[in-house]
Amino acid sequence: MTEVDAAGRLRAALDATDSSARVQAAMTAGTHPHPTYVPVLVAQCRFEPDFLVREMLTWALTRHDADEVIDRLLVELGSRGAQIRAQALHTMSKIGGPRVWPAITADLLKDADDAVARVAWRTAARHVPAAEASALATTLATQFARGEDDTRRSLSEAFATLGEPARPQVEWALATGGPYTRAHAAVTARLMDDPEATYDEAVAAAQASEVGR
Helix crossing, 114-127 with 133-141: angle to 10°? Predict the structure, then answer.
């Protein structure tokens, strides 16, 4: 089979209307990696509607040459499509390596799309060099009180991942922020104090503390 045939067959398989067939196509591409599969897999990430298929696309990409995949994902981080920006970050986080952290810009950390921002926060917290953790926390602190519960949960969990280097920024938000910022920062502080607690438990503890004052 020629390279063109291999890529074309994968593309056709990923066009299947049945999501389970698309999962199988991505799984096969990861099980038997081929350089020509990379652009096809990345392209599918732009519009794939099914979460499980997207996860399998990410897995398949992690089975290919890391530098080649990241080269393509870096381009997608500047895409106008929110889904591909989020999926590119997610996939880069799974691949890991020294090229991940420099790719996470302030624009991505403050992305207007909540899903993109959530992935950016999670990826940044996991891959930031220790020397830059405090600066990252300063940027993340500007996002307190943003969005709905799932977005706030992601931000609090990013701070918990950063740990003590991020403590001053949380305390700053508690001292100087508006009421919603202070409430979110209080939950975050609880989660940092008890990393074994769930976000919902941290919310309940923070609310109980506020009532007890």
Answer: 160
